[in-house]
Design brief:
The protein contains 8 helices and 7 strands, in the order αβββαααββαβααβα. It is of the alpha/beta class. It has a single domain, classed as Uracil-DNA glycosylase-like domain (Uracil-DNA Glycosylase, subunit E). The strands form 2 sheets. The chain has a 5-stranded mixed beta sheet with strand order 2-4-3-6-7. A two-stranded antiparallel ribbon has the order 1-5. It is globular. The mean pLDDT is about 95.
């Protein structure tokens, strides 16, 4: 067990023993491992947590975002990487901010602000985990992760970085943007992305290719 794994296990133990928060931690499942490409890491992907709705489905998750096998999330990330001119299998490090399984999906835990309360436990672990990747930009998947990492007055809404305005369908849009290193807790450039299911929404579907081109121009040219 390496130093990071020890830190993860210590944090799981602290949470499990916490009088109030322990009830939300499913300690029966092994923590999924980060995904790491075989070459030079040029992009960090930060997901939310490994808890899927199907309790049985959680038992087969071995790697963050299921990137060790074919599926919709892997296809999504591979598509982004392709447009950026990099390769998932070579240049990506992917991990979750919240590394534990919850007893049910966080959106179903209404009696507690799970993301806020668990952040103090997991943020130091993530900071230590990413320390070796100096200057490497990141993308966040979904609004809860973005909201946990940004600092005021930066926006915590993905759509704001994708140029959304109510008149976007009529050609009215704002410039694309990103979270500057001084405006987030990870102290690195972050490009907010939506969860893969949200690509069904017309706005994100329409803007996806343009936003990825923007990311490439800013961070990979």
């Amino acid at each position: 067990m390496n130093q990071l794994e020890e830190k993860v296990q210590q944090t799981i133990q602290q949470l499990s023993q916490n009088r109030r928060l322990g009830q939300y931690v499913d300690g029966t499942l092994s923590i999924p491992q980060p995904y790491r490409g075989l070459g030079l890491i040029r992009l960090i992907v930060v997901g939310q947590d490994p808890t899927v709705k199907d309790a049985e489905g959680r038992k087969v998750i071995r790697t963050v975002l299921n990137l060790d096998r074919n599926g919709s999330v892997r296809a999504y990330i591979e598509g982004v990487c392709r447009e950026l001119g990099i390769r998932l299998t070579e240049n990506v490090y992917a991990t979750n901010l919240y590394k534990n399984f919850f007893v049910r999906p966080p959106t179903q835990i209404l009696e507690s602000d799970i993301f806020r309360e668990f952040l103090d436990f997991w943020l130091p672990v993530l900071e230590e985990e990413l320390r070796e990747f100096v200057g490497v930009p990141g993308i966040t998947l979904g609004e809860p992760v973005l909201r946990a990492l940004v600092l005021e007055p930066a926006s915590a809404k993905v759509q704001d970085y994708w140029g959304y305005t109510p008149e976007w369908m009529k050609g009215g849009s704002k410039p694309f943007g990103y979270v500057r290193s001084v405006d987030n807790r990870l102290k690195r450039t972050i490009f907010p992305f939506t969860h893969q299911p949200s690509l069904r929404k017309q706005f994100y579907k329409a803007k996806m290719k343009e936003y990825v081109s923007f990311v490439r121009a800013v961070a990979f040219s």
